[in-house]
Design brief:
This protein has a seven-stranded mixed β-sheet with strand order 2-8-7-6-5-3-4, with helices on both faces. Strands 1-10 form a two-stranded parallel ribbon. A two-stranded antiparallel ribbon has the order 9-11. The protein folds into two domains: 139 residues, Aspartate Aminotransferase, domain 1, CATH 3.90.1150.10; 219 residues, Type I PLP-dependent aspartate aminotransferase-like (Major domain) (Aspartate Aminotransferase, domain 2, 3-Layer(aba) Sandwich). By secondary structure, the protein is an alpha/beta fold. It is globular and about 55 Å long. The chain is 42% helix and 14% strand. It has 14 helices and eleven strands.
């Protein structure tokens, strides 16, 4: 993982607490300044710096309209804005109540009547678990030695029963990412009746220049559906809005499989957040700087970690995760759950700078106890 010089210089200024910090990144009383007695909640891959000031202002102006459904022209305006952002037509955009709703809808679309998926292990399980409840099965393929998707092994598991392959890139919980070229080759090698569902929720935190979105494959006519979310870099996990990019035909099918539609606050906040480029850049810079702090400390402690490309780090604690979690909780730091088969590994979310400081202190105390 690398952070460029400009990002590090900007992060250093922010860490010193200049006026730009309070002007642009304040406004959330509980998340931006956590009191010492409150637990540091570092277990849900949330972005502690959002929503942006523009999104918050949009929500504040819209509270009185909370009794209303979002007007269709506003939904269409958001779809248009996302389509411009992605460089596609509006008919190729499907918005949902978080990308999680769209993952569930895809589990329904491709899982009904005995559908079969191929996915990495470990990975984000919302789609496989929802599909399983609808009678589908998933063939899980272990990640490779670098904790990345093992694409050759996943391709070998695709057969005549496979309807879709799920690729979370960067992957949750490992944080690793597969280069764009590798995924493109993988998709082009799939049978024409198999769809690649590529979950790019954490793409905004990637620093590896070889990693990037594969939404361009859609224009080539490849069987790809790309998912993005406002829950991570935009800091809107509690407001719930995500979207998919697909061919017009697949977008239409996914749109019809949705269970609901986003609320009026989420629609207006997302529209405002898309244009708040300065806030998004500063948020990314701070998270990347804190990510480097954590990996630097893990290296100093000789703890193995997966190469992170998201807003979290997956590392080997050297002890059963239950023991590690309990010890960290006793020090007021909440860490991620168990992800089998990695019984001693922990996923830690990048929090605010003070929360990262608390984590590093608690980590040292726990490992040296």
């Amino acid at each position: 993982m690398s952070v460029n010089r400009r990002e590090l210089l900007t992060a250093s200024a922010l860490l010193l607490g200049g006026p730009a910090l309070s002007m642009r990144l304040a406004a959330a009383p509980a998340t931006a300044a956590v009191v010492a007695t409150s637990p540091a909640v570092l277990c849900w891959n949330e972005n502690p710096y959002g929503p942006s000031p523009a999104a918050r202002a949009a929500v504040a102006r819209s509270v009185a309209d909370g009794c209303r459904y979002p007007p269709m022209p506003e939904i269409e305006a958001l779809e248009d804005a996302i389509a411009r952002h992605e460089g596609v037509g509006r008919e190729q955009i499907v918005i949902g109540t978080g990308s999680g709703e769209l993952l569930c809808a895809l589990g329904l679309l491709y899982g009904l009547n005995g559908g079969e998926f191929v996915a990495a292990e470990p990975t984000y399980l919302e789609l496989p678990e929802y599909a399983k409840a609808r009678g589908a099965t998933t063939r899980f393929v272990p990640v490779d030695a670098d904790l990345k998707h093992d694409l050759p092994a996943m391709r070998a598991r695709v057969d005549e029963h496979t309807r879709a392959v799920y690729l979370c890139n960067p992957n949750n919980p490992t944080g690793t990412a597969v280069p764009k070229q590798a995924i493109s080759g993988f998709v082009r090698g799939l049978p024409p009746n198999v769809v690649a569902i590529v979950d790019e929720a954490y793409m905004d935190f990637v620093t590896d220049p070889a990693v990037g979105s594969v939404s361009n494959l859609i224009a080539e006519g490849q069987p790809v559906i790309v998912l993005r979310t406002f829950s991570k870099i935009h800091g809107m996990a509690g407001l719930r809005l995500g979207y998919a990019v697909a061919s017009p035909e697949r977008a239409r099918a996914l749109r019809e499989a949705r269970m609901t539609f986003p609320n009026i606050l989420a629609v207006r906040a997302a529209r405002a957040s898309l244009d708040d480029h300065e806030f998004l850049t500063r948020t990314r810079t701070r998270i990347l700087a804190s990510r480097t702090r954590i990996t630097t400390e893990l290296a100093r402690l000789n703890r193995r970690y997966a190469q992170p490309q998201g807003n979290f780090v997956f590392f080997d604690t050297g002890m059963p995760l239950k023991d590690f979690s309990d010890r960290m909780k006793a020090r007021n730091v909440l860490v991620g759950r168990l992800f089998p088969p990695y019984e001693t590994w922990c996923r830690i979310t990048i929090g605010t700078e003070p929360e990262v400081t608390r984590f590093i202190r608690a980590l040292n105390e726990t490992l040296n106890a």
